[in-house]
Amino acid sequence: MESSNNITLVEARDRSAVISEAAYRVHLDLTTGDGFRSESVVRFRCSDPAAETHIDLTAPSVEAMELNGVALPPEAFDGNRIRLHGLAAENELTVVARCAYHGAELGMHRFV
Q1: How many helices (H) and strands (E) does the chain have?
Q2: All domains of the chain, ordered by start, with CATH?
Q3: CA atoms within 13 A on the CB side of 70
Q4: Which of 65, 89, 96, 103 could form a cystine bridge with 72, CB 3.0-4.6 A?
């Protein structure tokens, strides 16, 4: 089931209670026409490795997802979120996605 691309206040509070010190490295390839490729590495700490959480990503498709060196199954991504479980105290999430441009005042826009 596809989740909403809006995080609720409760979800934000729950996530911030266990996730800290997030750092992002993002590379966007904007040279293609219909969309763009995104390569992201997110490093973060988790105070409760038994916790489950998610990272937000709205994209038509994901080419690869890896948490702490282990590939995540395709069903971890639902179009708006990547579900994360089996977290460690320190984590690294790598995601390669094919993203779309938006024309409705949100996301990335393309003007040519």
Answers
A1: 1, 7
A2: 9-100 (2.60.40.1730)
A3: 10
A4: 65
Of the candidates 93, 96, 105, 100, the one whose C-alpha atom is nearest the C-alpha of residue 46 is 93
Nearest to 91 by CA among 36, 45, 51: 45
Q: What is the pLDDT of residues 70-101, one digit of tens each?
A: 999 999 999 999 999 999 999 999 999 999 88
Question: Which residues have a Cβ under 8 Å from the Cβ of 89 and sit 6 or more positions away?
Answer: 45, 46, 47, 49
Which token pair is 3? 């989740």
Query: Nearest to residue 56, comparing CAs of 31, 36, 27, 83?
Result: 83
Alpha-carbon gap, residue 19 to 9, rounded angstroms: 15
Q: For residue 22, what are the β-bridge partners?
A: none
Q: Are 59 and 98 in contact (CB under 8 A)?
A: yes
Q: Please say if the pLDDT value at position 29 is more than 60.
A: yes
